[in-house]
Fold this protein.
Amino acid sequence: MAGFLERITERWKVYREPGFFKKLDHKWTMVIDLDKCNGCGACVLACYAENNLPVVGKDECAMSRAFSWLRIERYIDGEYPDVKVKFIPVMCQHCSKAPCETGCPVYATYHNQDGLNVQVYNRCVGTFTCATYCPYDVRRFNWRSYKFEQPLDHQLNPDVTVREMGVMEKCTFCIQRIRAAKDKAKDEGRTVQDGEVLPACVQSCPTGAMIFGDLLDPNSKAAKLAKSPRRYRLLEELNADPSVIYLKRVMKEGPSKHG
Amino acid sequence: MKYFIAYVSVAVITFALGYKAYGLYFSDLSPVQPIPFSHKIHAGTNKIPCMYCHIYAEKSRHAGVPNVKRCMGCHSIIKTDSPLIQKLASYWEKKEPIPWVKVYNLPDHVYFPHKRHVKAGVPCQRCHGDVANMDRITREVVPFGLPYGMVSPLKMGWCIECHNNEAQKYIGTPVKNGTDCWTCHK
Amino acid sequence: MKRRDFLKILGVGGVGTGLGYFFGKASKPPAAELIPYLIPPVDVIPGVANWYPSLCTQCSAGCGIHVRVMEGRAKKIEGNPLHPINKGKLCARGQASLQVLYNPDRIKKPLKRRGDRGKGDFEEITWEEGLSLLSKNLTALSEKGETEKLYFVSSQTRGSLNSIINNFMASYGSPNYMQYELIQNKNLLFANHVSMGLNNIPHYDIANTKYLLSFGADFGTTWLSPVNYSFAYGQMRQGEDGIRGKFVQIEPRLSLTGANADEWVPAKPGTEGVLALAIAYAIVEDGYYKGSDAASWKALLSEYSPKDAAVVTEIAEGRIREIAKEFGQTRPSLAIGGENLARYENGMSGIVAVNILNHLAGNIGIRGGVIPNSNGSRTIDFKNNINALATAASASKVKTLLVYNTNPVFTTPKAMKTEESLRNIPFIASFSSFMDETTAMADLILPAHTSLEDWGDDFADPSVGHPVVTIMQPAVSPFFNTVGIGDIILSLAKGIGGKVKDKMQWNDFSDYLKDAWKANYSKDKDMLASALTFDEFWNQLLARGGWWPADQAKVKSVAVSPKGIEAHIAKASSRFEGDEKGFPLYLTTYAHSSYLDGRGANLPWLQEIPDPMTSVVWGNWIELNPKTASNMGIKEGDTVSVESPFGKINAHVYLYPGIRPDTVSMPIGQGHSTYGRYAKGRGSNPIDILPFKEDPNTGELALNVTRVKISRVISSEKMVKIEGSTKELGRNIVQTISPDEFNKMNKEVS
């Protein structure tokens, strides 16, 4: 038994080493311009609709079990009347050196060849380790098998499975859309083009603050924006090497003028 | 209770036989269909190509079951006197679809596109068995009335085996990212 | 072995086999069925999505949508990328309209009242019974010669639905078709009419402006055309020309849109109109106005010197002049007047003041300013409003009322006594798909399709400088036993017979729509040029999702003359009910970004996604400045009673530094007494405690019109919010750079 475990651990160790995939197929990246984002929340709803996120109800929300893979954080600085409000959409940052991946005892979360940090639902046993390791608090746990009330279940997206109790989940960068785009590209005998893959949040964003693309394609819009002098990444000091790039909000320092 | 052991052993054996018989002849491995449609007659004797009826296999994830109109396309002329065809015709007249029973049922978390496999040149028989010689579609190989093995177990190892090795027969290389979880899971 | 034993063993064997069989059956999941199509629909491939272009009806903006349909079920709604209003984007409300279609609380069949009115006791009937019941009622009314006692009230309708209802009412012989919903922008329409001569809402070109001065316009969530303006906002901030537009918001409570502004000017509630005029005065006085009639403007505005206004508005004189300077000098600049301004008692004159600002700065008719929309001028009957209905009903002048898609019982103040007046009406029929407060009063409910199941069209207002028409087509077949509203009206016409039937000879509403478009097609030379035959044109229309010209129409300049305007200039700041001592706090209300006027409260998604400003879910709250709260000893999450001279409600307190200490604010939308399992009994409705004040010119209800007092009460209910803290706690999560640095950076890059 011990030998078997050892063998398995040896075999899986390679996946944990950074740079296991010597050459990535893609490096999917999201660039979010915080100067454009107005915090309206359309992306949050788009995520609910696309990814079959359950509505958990008031009581579960009170226990911090709300399911949004993508949330809008809102910070208020200062006191009346020098109030400054800042919005930032936060979803899984798809870190290249993801802390969650090192923790999972069953290898349910790993990095794939597209540069995505992915979660395998049917491998997950629900130890909650990844969620505790995640510095961005973007992982969501199925505390129970949430019901989709009839006939609301007719809306469920057939491209995404409905998760059950005991499974950890998180933003996938709408991997089903990436897969669909690849599928279409393969039919047409070409590679995926820039702008062809749009995660639900990016697609819906009314202000156009979110841009999605392949960082390995130097001509993609996202790769160009990623070089902006306004770029920064969330909690960069943790050295998790996130794939989501934020562009700084343009905002006056110090107290604002008022009456 | 002279025959106690006999009773017990007969009970156990018949219980097992009954259990197996359900699995073999009545369960989803080889379910009884509302109309005893024979692939042997259609695909075997008459050599109708698979995709004449399973029209979506090249275009979609689902291969699709033939719609009732397609059945009636032939059977409004062919063998109309057979009672089974009349049963089919009665569905058509009632404007009711036929409640076929699913044989190959994948769990919700599996993403299996027929399209990709058909386009790669994997023959249907590779996974669905020698359909042309089956009267009733079964997932179990039953050479002499005895269960012999599964046509396709639909287990993950079986998928991966093909992605890694047998795929070379069809596309020359192993499937690209063929063992990545999110290639086949959703 | 004896024969007896053999039989025994045989018996045991038989029982064993049977048990084994049934055990096998019980232990394995039942086989799934594989139901084929009877006849395959031509355009359906199972497993492959179809996208149908249609129209979003969650608010009156008229965005184009694409509905993702798989095997006949709608799966997702996204914006139509070709559509000029929303450019492929869609707000949360629009995306949630899927849950209107698949809502478990939909009325699934026609219902007839069984018990007392308003008790919600209904019995199911068939469509034949329901339609004949209503058409008999209408026939009886017309036989008595009382056709004018039929009233029809609906939400704002445009296009073919509007014309078929008008057709029906005209051929029946009743002039009483009125459109009512809480947010109708009547004050804006009227103000634009008197100050700019426009009969529709112009295109506010936020995208290209360099200085946006917003008077309480929450254009990012609810005002006019939120998706269009949000997109424009993004362009204004980080557009292609690299110059970042400045944005100043004037409102007593920082809305979501205001939260994104560079500067917030918290003028005293009700004085924003005066502030606008003071800025206008400063523009003229300081010489930023280039017109020849500067002197007459100065005379007209003489009462509003920044010095005097500073006292009223509590905004320093220097600040007013500074805004005037920036607004007058930055080219192009744009002032907009939103709902917060329009919903004061004299809100209409506030909007007039904003128009004056735009005129003085020379923003009307230019790119980046106010661009008049040439098309779709609509005549709005300002007199035919909801109060006219309530008055007529109280005076027993209404015998039959038809209600479609509007909920006046919920959205009018209790002080207006809408519910009581409706009780006076002998027969009410509702075409709502949901049991809202007004529908609960009905005698007969004939549930109409939702927008994803029905035909229709919409002439966008405000448009974007050129005409935009959107076609609504059924994306899915009807899910319940409902009928489209147009078809209900046509069936009624057939049921009534006589001249009504003769004038309404269409088979169904889709024919009516097609006929209307045949007429449009034959008149419009652009449409004629786009396709050889009407059928080709119609197919194009359905495939694209509507009609809009390829190129931007020319910009028209409109002068605002001080002569026509005088009568509508604010003489003083807006009044608030309740004396300052007894009721120390101003109450402002606003349409919530998710629930709007309350219509979104029955959709679980909209209840579940946190409010962007407070992160509160499944309920509502009252916003209170932390200073005020600490003076009163109130903590966040406490329940307070909010009392105005007209009523009292309870609400949870949310402490929000972005509100004036003398003001409290509450979102509209919760507090339903019915309206399905997700909405019922959640939070409270601030409209309940408002006085009934309508604008004498437009009939628009004033919403920011009373003072309140608040006091703590004990309640077991809790406010649930998602956020932990509103502070970054030094983690530098949202990083910023200053505008100067940004401009320097831009230069370096280019």
